[in-house]
Amino acid sequence: MGCCGGNRFSWSLLLLSFAVALVTYNLLLASSHAPLASDHRLLLPTTTAAAFTQPRHRPFLSSGDGGGAEEGRPRRRRAFHTAVTASDSVYTAWQCRVMYYWFKKAKGRGGGDGEMGGFTRILHSGRPDAFMNEIPTFVADPLPDGLDQGYIVLNRPWAFVQWLQKANIQEDYILMAEPDHIIVKPIPNLSKDGLAAAFPFFYIEPKKYEPVLRKFFHEDKGPITNIDPIGNSPVIIDKESLMKIAPTWMNVSLAMKKDPATDKAFGWVLEMYAYAVASALHGVGNILRKDLMIQPPWDLEVGEKFIIHYTYGCDYDMKGKLTYGKIGEWRFDKRSYEGKPPPRNLPLPPDGVPQSVVTLVKMVNEATANIPNWDAFTG
């Protein structure tokens, strides 16, 4: 396990940087006409921003981090690196293990000419965990205590800022994914002509929340429809654009969380809105690809989609009828396994349950059957 270089910045300096950040955002929020920097970032003064975006230690890198072009083979210009942010909880650890299993399977099926490159779990706990040798991992610092206000997802943009600055990412493109994604088949680089490729979420509604979003995306930046109905994941984007977007995404996320009205309006999807705003501020458009992902139980068939996102619970009676909102006689819900991983060989759903749910459980079962020491891990 190696380390990468970098200046050491004291914890107190990092805290000072965050304090200055929050003062800056209070000023921004006080006026709807607060000026933005010429490059559309909501950045701190230069001297402070440099300190703010540096990890406080030399981050740990486990084997394989940043890799994408195998040694002895030419670098593939359209290859993308898959990156997943995660905490060190049991809950996200087992999801990452399943996700990485299927990433490797999909990449292998893509062959030598496939565009799936390397993989990194960006672990924002500030310390290595038990899976450093199993999953290629970059250890990033978490936000200072209390700054996320219990909304742990705020660590995601901060973790990406650190990774993009410090890791040796050989690919020119990035796929931002999540622990609860299962890759069904090889994913091509769906970005094109300077546009990122992103999944559109029905619940991200910029037009509906225009009065709120105008605090961060002022009228002189263009129509509110310039903000795409996306989050940061899944998104395939060129690395250069993401390096510009990431600090803005981080700053807008903190500013939104600091503003009570915005926090109330967006709730658990606040960080997704922040990414959509940051992307628009930098003029990065997105090809909206509904075929990028399905979300059981609402999507009934996998079809030609690339990713299964199991964010929703799947509850059915024994006749195969959905009982969403009520615990079913048969169920698969990732939240049932917050304290320990799911056991191997989960029971399959009853007849009549949609193919998407059946496929999801079968894929979880295959992963857990083949991942070493699955039953031994209890956290």
From TrEMBL:
Q: Give the UniProt keywords, A-Z.
A: Glycosyltransferase, Membrane, Transferase, Transmembrane, Transmembrane helix
Q: Which GO terms describe its molecular function?
A: glycosyltransferase activity
Identify the stretch(es) annotated as Disordered.
55-77
Name the membrane topology term.
Answer: Single-pass membrane protein
A Pfam match = HPAT
Q: A GO CC term?
A: membrane
Reply yes or no: does the keyword Protease apply.
no
Q: Where are the transmembrane segments?
A: none
What range(s) does the Hydroxyproline O-arabinosyltransferase-like domain occupy? 80-375
Record's subcellular location = Membrane
Q: What is this protein called?
A: Hydroxyproline O-arabinosyltransferase 1-like
Q: What is this protein's gene name?
A: LOC109712180
